[in-house]
Amino acid sequence: MPTKMRQNRFTQIKPKERLPEWIKPSIGKASQIEQVQTLVKGNNLHTICEEGRCPNRGECYAAGTATFLLGGSICTRSCSFCQVDKGRTPEAVSQMEAPRIANAVKVLGLQYVVLTSVARDDLPDHGASLFTTTISEIRKLIPDIAIEVLTPDFWGGARDQQQAEILQRSRLKRVLDANPVCFNHNLETIKRLQTQVRRGATYKHSLTLLASARDIAPAIPTKSGLMLGLGEKREEIIETLKDLRAVDCQQLTLGQYLRPSLAHIPVQHYWHPKEFKKFAEIAKELGFKKVNSGPLVRSSYHAEKN
Fold first, then answer.
1. H helices then E strands: how many in the chain?
2. Residue 299: its pLDDT value, please?
3. Which residues pair with 285 in a beta bridge?
4. Crossing angle of the two packed helices 273-286 and 234-246, in degrees rounded to 10
5. Gyration radius of the chain over CA positions
6. Maximum distance among all alpha carbons in the chain?
7. Which carries the bigger pLDDT value, residue 13 or residue 54?
8. How far apart are CA 262 and CA 110, in angstroms?
9. Each residue's pLDDT tens digit, 198-243
10. Which of 65, 98, 109, 148 would be 137's cystine partner, CB 3.0–4.6 Å?
11. For 277-289, how does the pLDDT look when each residue is reduced to its tens digit (9 = 90+)?
12. pLDDT, position 199
């Protein structure tokens, strides 16, 4: 059995305030949610929609989209914002995961699929083959389906910086060679808060990954996202958007961080919908081609829309 990492650093810290009135998750149709949940659980699969308790899962299921979580349900990193279970010894990757996901996609009649994964730093390729294998299996059943990938940073497993960069680029290339319709990797937060929020990941490694994606496969658009409300300042948000544009990131999601439990990092501020709208305007002025910005926006929200 995997040994889960304890997350008690913030357990005694209560949220600073109740949810504001504009935080109203979309409920969706119970029948559609039940259909997806039954199929996913029955096939021993995982979706970030369920594992992360996404507030938009009902709406996305109704739109014919879902985000499957590859590599099991145990993540080898311990980010302070994420509800996915953590552990140093995750379960072995199931050889049936990819074909089961492909079958689920076909049964559900999905038109647009997002594939993401837990961080699997324990694997030699850090999980790159999880994406390529699953993409291949899905396309065997549905050749013309649109598949977006949301990957970890593929960083690590080398003695020095140069070798680590070579490995990261090699793993990334494997995924891009599978020709997804979009490559997504989230910065999650501003540079100043990276260590506190994203344990095991860095601002530089993430920007390097996004820059490499544009270099390796310029025809595939890149995308990144930020959670707001962790203590960032307005100027820091704009500076982060500029950093993303400096590596030619073309799509952006901005959403409000919502604390999953008292074991997770507290919310410091709830940004108003009008502020999200203003950030979207700034992002478009900076050159982002597609921007989704709002309190309940998540990485895959309206991903199917060009």
1. 10, 9
2. 80
3. none
4. 30
5. 18
6. 52
7. 54
8. 35
9. 877 889 999 999 999 999 999 999 999 999 999 999 999 999 999 9
10. 98
11. 999 999 999 999 9
12. 75
Which one-letter amino acid corresponds to residue 83?
Q
For 126, list phi and psi in degrees, rounded to 5.
55, 25
What is the C-alpha to C-alpha distance for residues 222 and 207, in angstroms, rounded to an integer? Answer: 11
SS3 content of the chain, % helix, strand, coil (to 5): 35, 15, 50
Tokens of 75: 């993540």
Residue where the block lists tokens 């997002």: 114
CB 180 within 8 A of CB 135: yes
Q: In what order do the strands lie in the sheet with 65-70?
A: 65-70, 112-117, 146-150, 182-184, 222-228, 251-256, 290-293
Instruction: Tell me whether residue 214 is exposed, middle or buried, using C-beta atoms within 10 angstroms of its C-beta: 0 to 12, 13 to 18, 19 or more.
Output: middle
The continuous run of DSSP H or E covering 69 comes out as: strand 65-70
Q: Could you tell me which of 138, 174, 136 has the C-alpha nearest to residue 154?
A: 174
- The whole-angstrom distance between residue 221's C-alpha and the CA centroid of its chain comes to 16
pLDDT for the residue numbered 57: 67
- CA 161 to centroid of chain Cα atoms: 25
Tokens 């299921």 identify what position?
A: 61
Q: Of 226, 194, 224, 195, which is closest to residue 209 (Cα–Cα)?
A: 224
For β-strands 85-86 and 74-75, DSSP reports them as: parallel
Nearest Cα residue to 231 out of 186, 199, 196: 196
| End-to-end alpha carbon distance in the chain | 42
Query: Which residue do the tokens 């009649």 mark?
Result: 109
pTM: 0.85
- Length of the chain as a residue count: 306
At 66-113, the pLDDT tens digits run 788 898 776 666 655 556 555 566 778 889 999 999 998 898 888 889
